[in-house]
Specification:
The protein has 80 residues and is of the alpha+beta class. It contains 2 helices and 2 strands. The chain folds into 2 domains: 2-34, no CATH class; 43-74, no CATH class. Strands 1-2 form a two-stranded antiparallel ribbon.
Amino acid sequence: MRTKRSSRYVGAPAHPRPRFGVDLPDGAEVQIAVVDSGDQLDDEDRARLHAAIEQAHDELDRGEGIPAAEFLADLRSRRG
């Protein structure tokens, strides 16, 4: 788990609504932990995801892709 030390000062950006009723005074030091529980994929779903990504790479290698700008323009045109 990665952690980071931080201090809060007046005028510093803060969560608009303190979570869990925590209201810290200016200059209070806090330790922030980034918790990543993963992607929740089981082995079968992860294998299908990796196969789809590999297939997409192969299609791009064969020149079967389209430019992002063209793709986005097509999506926008479908919104009407």
